[in-house]
Amino acid sequence: MRQLLTGLIRGNYCNYRIEHLDCAFNVLNPCGCAFGGGGGGGRSCVFELACVREALDAVLFKTCLFFDSKGCFNLVISLLSADVFKNDQNPPPFLISFFFLDWDGVFFLCFGLCFLSDLLFILYIIIYKMNLRFLNSRKLINIIEMASQLILQIYHRDNFMVEIKEDKSPLTEADKKANEYICNQLTSLYPEIPIISEENKNEDYEYRSKYEFAWLIDPLDGTKEFISRNGEFTVNIGLIHLGVPVAGFVNIPCTGITYWAIKGCGAWKKNYNEEDSVMIEPRGGDDGGRRKKKIVLASRSHMNDETVEYISKLGGEVELVNVGSSIKLMWIADNKADIYPRLAPTMEWDTCASDAILRELGGGCQIYFKEIKMGVGGGVKYLVYNKESLLNPSFIAQID
Length: 400
Prior knowledge:
alpha+beta, Fructose-1,6-Bisphosphatase, Chain A, domain 1, seven-stranded mixed sheet, 14 helices
């Protein structure tokens, strides 16, 4: 035990963990005396210094990943003990500066170390998680391309089964197979991230509200277009962090093109027959890359009077183009169109992946408020995901 504690003070402590110190504490201070002033003598001082050394190492160098508030409390108690400085003849060099602090200073130093430990953890989340380095874009592209191939196998059959769901929307064998494949692959690759899918029975909001990250999946966006065989359908895989889309992958099976973006990494486009992705350049120039004639997109299946009225008030020369599914939003991303007003219901999995791509290009799906429509007040607000209701409000998709 003496060798263990001596090693901790001299610096040979890398192979020891907090549980060893707990054991040492029980041996050296069996009465549970917190301040080491009675019964422990010089030996308790050695343990206190070891605690300090281990605790500082845990906070500053993070070799002990499980150092918590209890450990910080023990550190404070150790430093407040007079035995720390009275009985040890050879304190480690990093403790010399403590001799010039009064007890209030020592306390605030320990409080600062505790705060630093929490700050380092937060920085870890920001730097690692929010930079989304855990995402493997190549594997995710492969998943969405394979799901697309499964869909095309069914699409090119002479016949396929079509069911009608409770909400009166159609469901095909392609929806089911693509959903099963995507969910299995994502669960295998990222088991800690839950999945919200159009074709799954999703958790109640009481449980979903605790999600930090979550996938939002529409395995076949544009089922009506799939059934009518016009080729205007997509596969959508989006990732949200605390309600904000941070990654999106959208594949158009009939063209073999995958659009994708990860927050902070730009937006990209990849052809199925090509190995590498090509970056989508943000719109630039004095005119922002816009045309003299504004190309406005509308849903082939969900045009309504309010949308017609909105388009009529845009002003200037307007060309209206009808197209299905998330292809509309990818046309905006690819600078083939300018604006898509969606003044009718959609679900979060319909827009999440595309929204992430547009946001990486400086745009997004902006919530359509009546006040903004009339030109009064209100700032721009974007769609929020994993709400209690997974239904989206009306929105305007564009790149600013």
